[in-house]
Design goal:
Shape: elongated
Distance between the termini: 58 Å
Structural class: alpha+beta
Radius of gyration: 27 Å
Helix content: 25-40%
Number of strands: 20
Length: 418
């Protein structure tokens, strides 16, 4: 341990560490702000997506814990180990999923917040997680976490200043890179729209319902466990995070298919999400049954309309499908809307040329995004490295000065061959 530094448990340097109400409150459209762990998952308090309780509940909850500006809220359920500082002088209450931490003065709040969000603290939190399924941190475990800190508050403040400056530069660099990723995706979508908006000689304008069978799905009874013990892949939107669905989370039996409204989509055909996950579009590699949130889109004559062309065209109109969604809680589109979508169909040779052109664009875009993602990963690693040094007593002003030499201006999005 560096000279002039101490190691103490959280319970030794903080006021009573407790959590919010253990009762699920009654919510209102306005009133006193009520926060849960969902409001701190980014490392800052999300004041925009809050719930509200009435004055009566508030007065009772404030007897347990009364957060104030400068206090720290730590997520102890769900996304555990993420902390945020109360940065507004505002009255609010918290749920049991948040731990309330207030330093007694030996450690300044800003230093303690950085420590709690550091790899050193995360390692301790992870060792102390309890529960099966949804992990959670118990208060007694949080209180035992060991904090390393310099006795000098001036040194604590210096560490905070260095980290503030470094993290501001890193966050700006990440924002620039993320904007470049967005630009690359938008450029690809723009070129996709441009390709499919053309209509050359011999192209046919058809509605999707004229050239494809649109097949719905369903869910076999969850009460019959035997239905989910089969060999038939059964897809939900949770399986649609890739362009080509090879495996599904669940498999069902033939009896499940016969005794429900699900349907089996033939291999190498398109499925789209028309409700939950609206706008997601994939191809199934194998015969796959689908649930009620999905539709199979199967060309009536694949010699006139190839699946590969259809898949890429559907990708080009995904935003249109999303924009047409209706519903109070879950957005969705109806079967007549899907069937009414207009598609311009060229001859088979032109379809193949278009597919190849789009694939070249896609490869270039994905390569660019992968490079940007590597840069983001490197910046995240740099953050962790700085935190590790900070709480090992190895951080110096030179770690801050290096960012004076680094340009954080956004790089232009690289071009790629079409």
């Amino acid at each position: 341990m560096k000279q002039g530094w101490e190691i103490k448990k959280l319970k030794e340097i903080c006021d009573k560490i407790t959590d919010g109400t253990h009762q699920t409150p009654k919510y209102f459209n306005s009133g006193i702000i009520f926060l849960s762990s969902k409001n701190v998952t980014s490392g800052k308090i999300d004041w925009d997506n809050v719930k509200y309780i009435d004055e009566k509940q508030h007065l009772e909850m404030h007897k347990r814990v009364a957060p104030r500006i400068g206090d720290i809220l730590l997520a102890k359920n769900g996304t555990t180990g993420v902390a945020a500082m109360v940065d507004k002088d505002i009255t609010f209450d918290i749920y049991v999923s948040l731990a309330h931490i207030r330093t007694l003065g030996a450690v300044i709040p800003e230093y303690l917040l950085y420590f709690i969000n550091s790899p050193i603290a995360k390692k301790q939190f992870n060792k102390r997680l309890k529960g099966i399924g949804v992990p959670n941190l118990h208060l007694q475990e949080i209180r035992e976490v060991e904090v390393t800190f310099p006795e000098s508050k001036d040194e604590q403040k210096q560490i905070v200043r260095i980290l503030d400056k470094a993290f501001a530069a890193i966050d700006q660099a990440k924002a620039n890179i993320e904007k470049n990723i967005q630009n690359a995706q938008e450029l690809f979508q723009s070129k996709l729209n441009e390709i499919f908006s053309q209509k050359g000689e011999g192209w046919e304008e058809k509605t999707l319902g004229e050239v494809c069978r649109v097949i719905g799905g369903g869910t076999p009874s969850k009460g019959n466990k035997d239905y989910y013990n089969g060999d038939i892949r059964w897809a939900t939107v949770r399986d649609m995070n890739v362009d080509l669905v090879e495996e599904t989370e669940h498999r069902i039996t033939l009896d499940a298919v016969k005794n429900s409204s699900t349907n089996i989509i033939p291999a190498n055909n398109v499925i789209i999400a028309t409700r939950v996950g609206l706008g997601k579009i994939c191809i199934v590699k194998h015969e796959t049954a689908i649930n009620q949130d999905l539709r199979g889109i199967i060309p009536i004559n694949e010699r006139k309309l190839s699946v590969q062309f259809l898949f890429r065209w559907l990708k080009s109109v995904a935003n249109k499908i999303i924009g047409a969604g209706t519903g109070a809680t879950v957005q969705g589109v109806k079967l007549p809307f899907i069937k009414s979508l207009v598609i311009n169909i060229p001859n088979p040779n032109t379809q193949l040329e278009i597919v190849n052109k789009i694939d070249r664009l896609s490869i270039g875009t994905n390569r660019l995004i992968e490079l940007y993602q590597i840069k983001i990963d490197n910046l995240d690693h740099l953050k962790k490295s700085l935190l590790q040094k900070a709480f090992s007593g190895e951080l110096t002003s030179g770690d801050s000065e290096q960012f004076d030499q680094v340009s954080i201006a956004a790089e232009p999005t690289e071009s790629y061959s079409s």
